[in-house]
Amino acid sequence: MMRLKGIPLDVIASLAAPRRRRLPQGPVHVFIAIADHYEPMVGGAPLSQQMERVERWVRQYPESLGDFRDCWGRPPRHTFFYPAEVYEPEPVERLAHLCRVGYGEVEIHLHHDNDTASNLKETLLRFADTLRSEHGLLRDGPDGRPTYGFVHGNWALDNSRPDGRWCGVDNELKVLVETGCYGDFTLPSAPNPTQTRMVNSIYYARGVDGCRKSHDRGVRSRVGVIPAPEDLLLVQGPLALDWSRRKFGLAPSLENGEIHGGFPPSCRRLALWLNASVTVEGRENWRFIKLHTHGAKESNADVLLGGPTCDFHQTLRRLHLADADFNYYYVTTWEMTQLIHAAECGVEQPQLELLS
Fold it and tell me: Which residues are CB-neighbours of 180 under 8 A, at least 6 positions away?
């Protein structure tokens, strides 16, 4: 059970405040993305073990999840954020195969420490180019260069740790925008002290020279408001107090959208994720649920590729069959971003064509 220590007091207060964001009347559209901090080298695994972990996903994902369909008729989709600093071509190519047959996309994950803005920029551009040129991954951005989604290792986006470890680049947001990042999917990080005061939000933040944790506050995504090019989109996952799981029968546990071996997705957790109300303001009937995991680890893969996750997909199907106003869609983080921008532009009905 996760403790609340290290989370800013005003964040705890906002989570403890009564929420009045019930699902609106009429059709509700729920978009579900899993941002997987996918690290096959975890535990110092040699390349042979890394390949075993990846091959399990390539084999078992279609076998276990391929028959499920969302309201667009698509199977579950997964986003693999692969660490740039430990790139190996063989596992990435196998993940690329899984993505090419329709089960997801690969984006950029990065662990770094005591870094500089210039080295960070070179690292991101080089890895994005490698994913595009060597594996046919990533999308083309407006300038023709690869565009990518990002998850920061150790949660330390924009040098946000109090001790300055695991980053080192105060104006990291600016570097991300300059290198083609379409959105950051690191948050929430609670109970880590890198957690921002913004919670349960889709918002924009702008890097400030010489300032760390520039994304602590920002401007929420809103219908009719188009962001400036220098602003970075941040898509947060749900963060809530779970009073159904209490420590010593008193203190609530923390729900932060993480899926792992001891905590699979469930109908009860879905209710918390929906109630977190991560939306584009003015389009409250579109709910964006960005979850996270470390899926290469065997105990987590057991859940993500096994019975607990299959049961969750069955639950989604039953909810839709019981209530035609409940619509759910499996999306990658890039697809989630396109839907966010569509909502900002005033689109009222989500269509698959928005993702092309």
Answer: 124, 125, 128, 141, 143, 145, 146, 147, 148
Closest CA to 202 of 173, 181, 170, 227: 227
Alpha carbons 2 and 191: distance in angstroms, whole number? 7
Residue 57 tokens read as 């996903």
Beta-carbon contacts of residue 310 (< 8 Å; ≥ 6 apart) = 64, 65, 68
> Can you tell me which residue has the tokens 């839907």?
339
- Amino acid 1: pLDDT: 39
Q: What is the pLDDT of residues 139-197, one digit of tens each?
A: 999 889 999 999 999 999 999 999 999 999 999 999 999 999 999 999 999 999 999 99
Q: How far is CA 217 from CA 152, 202, 203, 206, 260, in A?
A: 18, 11, 9, 10, 29
Task: Report which of 162, 186, 190, 161 is spatially closest to residue 176, judged by C-alpha positions.
Answer: 186
What is the C-alpha to C-alpha distance for residues 51 and 273, in angstroms, rounded to an integer? 33
The rounded distance, in Å, linking the Cα atoms of 265 and 263 is: 7
Q: Is the CB of residue 255 less than 8 Å from the CB of residue 272?
A: yes
Task: With beta carbons less than 8 A apart as the criterion, state whether 215 and 233 touch.
Answer: no
Q: Which amino acid is at 277?
A: S
Which token pair is 67?
Answer: 């028959």
3-class SS shares of the chain: helix, strand, coil, % to 5: 35, 20, 40
CA pair distance 23, 20, nearest whole angstrom:
9
pLDDT tens-digit map of 21-55: 567 788 999 999 999 999 999 999 999 999 999 99
The span from the first CA to the last CA of the chain, in angstroms, equals 41
pTM of the model: 0.94
pLDDT tens-place string over residues 55-78: 999 999 999 999 999 999 999 999
Place of tokens 């929430």: 188
Question: Tokens 């919670």 — which residue?
Answer: 199
